[in-house]
Amino acid sequence: MSSFPIAPKHPHEIAQHGQTRVDNYYWMRDRNDPETMKHLRAESDYLEEIMQHTKPLQEKLFTEMKARIKEDDSTVPAKSGGYFYYERHEEGKQYPIFCRKQGVLDSAEEILLDQNQLAEGKTFCSVGAFSVSPDGNKLVYSVDYGGREIYTLHLKDLKSGKLYPEMIENTSGSAYEHGGTEWANDNETFLYITLDDAQRPCKLYRHKLGTDPAQDVLIFHEQDETYFLFMFKTRDEAYIMTYHYSTTTREMRFLSADHPEEYLRVLQPRINGLEYYAAHHNGNFFIVHNDNAKNFKLSVAPLGKPEKENWREVIPHRADVLVDGVDTFADFVVVHERKGGLKQLRISAPDGLGNVRYVQFPEPAYNVNLETNPEFKTNLLRFNYSSLITPNSIIDYHVDSAEWELKKEDEIPSGYDKTQYISERIHATASDGTQVPISIVYKKGLNKDGNNPTLLYGYGSYGATIDATFSSNRFSLLERGFVFAIGHIRGGSDMGREWYEDGKMLNKKNTFTDFIASAEHLIKAGFTSPQKLAIMGGSAGGLLVGACVTMRPDLFKAVICKVPFVDVVTTMSDPTIPLTTLEYDQWGNPEDREYFDYMMTYSPYNNIRATEYPHMLITTGLNDPRVAYWEPAKFAAKLREMKTDDNLIMMYTNYDSGHAGASGRYDFLKEIAQDYAFLLDKLDVK
Questions:
Q1: Which entry of 246, 348, 539, 657 is annotated as an active-site residue?
Q2: What is the pLDDT of residues 598-621, one digit of tens each?
Q3: Measured between alpha carbons, how far is 670 from 495 in angstroms, rounded to an integer?
Q4: How many CA within 13 A on the CB side of residue 582?
Q5: CA distances from 265 to 284, 422, 474, 497 (A)
Q6: Of these residues, 624, 656, 663, 675, which one is catalytic?
Q7: Are 437 and 495 contacting, i.e. CB atoms less than 8 angstroms apart?
Q8: By CB distance 3.0 to 4.6 Å, which of 72, 90, 128, 486 could disulfide with 439?
Q9: Domains of the chain (ranges plus CATH)?
Q10: pTM (2 decimals)?
Q11: Is 539 among the catalytic positions?
């Protein structure tokens, strides 16, 4: 067996606040340096050799996971205008086919876009924007072929099937965010957003069909580098809204979809610390906001006078309920809430006050997300419901009768019996006494003797919550005796806004100590032991597991760090890197000595020391704009330099993808199969 890759050291000194730290692997930032690619390829060769004996297992896992997918499948058609829109997959094909039927569901199928054709000859293909004009005759869509989340817009005539000659490059269209383009109601004009050099969405343009994009009109330029610019069209199709997002402040503007040549009106000018989100309804805006309301509340204001002084309270602030969003329909209003860590859907009359009722959910831990619900005038609310043991289910909820109409539950072709599994919600006690919820699932008959292989997953940043969702892939672990757990740690909004604020900035280390407490509780409760416990997280969740492994390397046997944000101080000191300026209010700005000192106490890369570490699989995408490949590469190299054990540090690089990994559904399964094979191998699961 060849020895593991040893990265050459080229000391680079970084001086901040009177301190000088030496980074031996700073040179990896230069992808044009032949040494960089040589090292990444050496890492890939080493991984291939070390994991060679698991190839049959990886193939078995892939076959199992593929067998749980109905390969020839379709989404539930969604009515919009005079059409039913849906996506379908064909057996053996990596990507969806976007389709519609006119009038009724048994009419002839019309294929709008076949992503498999777009992806021919490509190693990566992501469709971002996908927007049909109000008259149904034109399509604007965007494609990214590199995983960099930089999209090119294309226009298609749906009557002739031909593309218009104009293309618009460097647009925002990421599936992570609000859509990248919206049509005006004249069916000839659409709006789109472009990126700056740091890939910040910041400019809103208006394009007229058939004209040169070089002549497009700049409607708005978000010049504040701490703000991202997004856009969406209201459900009643009356307005196009812009959403100006920073981590502590929000602003919205609106433009008549009937008169796209008019100017953007500001709803409420930005005030530092004021966050709000508005939905239009019959000449009013329903506004979720945090003005004197840590957990947010709901107000309403007239379209003609939408400023804060005219906001009239509809739902008051409550200490135990987070108001998370609002959706408006012709005859009812839906408010998204979170109580006791669980999502709630509050339905009321159009005024937000009358006939209030809540959707009742059947399990103690679950996840629910609204589908697109494009129709404004309807008595149905469509949502996706699942839990750790209930497959994704599309429900049409009858608002008038509270009836659940199951439109589709994801089929598991290889067979699945949910009664064979147990899902629980338990709690760990954090170091400061805080009770941290843990969602957990395992197969019936499990002995709590401390010998069960266990995977603990977490995220804990940006106020994002990791709810108890279903994954058919996960059953390849559960069937082999695994316990799977999600730590609902601070830094998310699981238990309200305070839960988020207690895990950011100068409270960030609560995120890590909560996760460590969750691991210790699983051990204490007899589910597992340090020799059988693995942890996994991605992106900011990669920071989570990276920080936990540098704080408590004795607690874990194996770690999967996916696209991990692990060099916090260096990255947050570089405003040219995408997301840096936006996130000063998440982590702090290291130009401030207080934040610099605090980051240095937890930044994983800066806290690697000479000690024993668990087996680690670290992953990256070469084109990742969110966490650059060099962070995981440097982390792996420094771990190897410092560690005192014989455990394995391995790194996987997808040379064709970005932050989200492989774009094709089968390629993505192969990456999961590799992760699971690593876990089964290192936790000695036969």
A1: 539
A2: 999 999 999 999 999 999 999 999
A3: 35
A4: 19
A5: 14, 52, 47, 29
A6: 624
A7: yes
A8: 486
A9: 17-50+561-686 (3.40.50.1820), 122-274 (2.130.10.120), 421-529 (3.40.50.1820)
A10: 0.94
A11: yes
